[in-house]
Amino acid sequence: MICVAGMPRSGTSLVTQLLHQSGLYLGPNTDMMPPSPNNTDGFWENLSFVRVNDRLLASSGGTWFAPPAALRPAPQIVADARAAIARFDGHEPWGWKDPRNALTLAFWRELLPPSLKVIVCVRHPAETAASLAASTLFPRPAIRFSWPVTRGQRLRRRMAGAIRATVSASERSRLIYDIALDLWRTYNASLLEQSRGLECIVTNYETLLGDPRNELERLCAFANLRPSAAALDAPKSSLRHQRAAGATLDRDTASLYEKLCLQSREPSFTSC
Question: Is residue 78 pLDDT above 50, yes or no?
């Protein structure tokens, strides 16, 4: 079984689409999240897993854009997660994708065998942040904001500013960009920590668009799949709307990105 995870806007949807086209079972079409203007080719997320992740984060005092300090799964959430997994019996190879897996993988590991494999999707932090700022995924102004932010007063102030109805569109975009860089570091550090001991592979969005055939073959070899003709023809450089040229990163973010880039050149690795 395959878990696909990464910071939102890092290519998780594209990777999962290609794996699905190459034979990875994601569940019946009726269970899949429908496309939206933010992702016209589809999210390729099974709603059963998405709902469990959303409820798990909420019960732990957070959400995808305000990660909780620790996970606190309620018994009913555990039961619903087991039921979601059970629906895949007899459908090997199967997998599920949700960027939130970067925050909740430790929970799913308790319910799945140690043979679980993880695909870590990474994209340059500045491109990821710009893509999130350009999307409509972040809560809109004037929406009531009740999630506690657990990552310090500076982030709390930026988060509150980004959702105020009185903030200009340009200022809101700047705040979301700033928040997204912080979230990029949180998601990827969490994913590496929570995947410790599992077999993992890192795929870089830039490589997937620049050298799609070789990168897809690498991913399919990891997932024990054979690339389909449709999958080999799917990745297009036109999917890339943001560029990181000239972007400056803080030391911790740059160091983490460099580490992930190095791992993206390996066939696979056991996180440790």
Answer: yes
